[in-house]
Amino acid sequence: MPENGDDPVVQALDIIMLAMIGGRERTAGRLSELLTSCGFGEPKVIPTEGRLRIVEAPAV
User: Is 2 part of a structural domain of the chain?
Assistant: First the structure.
């Protein structure tokens, strides 16, 4: 999700994930903290042509 939270489609998907499968909304900064604390390398957020993004974090 963008740090500023402007994208309403992404916000709607986040709400669905929170309500249906117990997911969590995380900014790129929070994902970085979480993944590096679990032993992964610095994550890379990859934009797509759509409204979603891919997070890639190498195993260390």
Answer: no
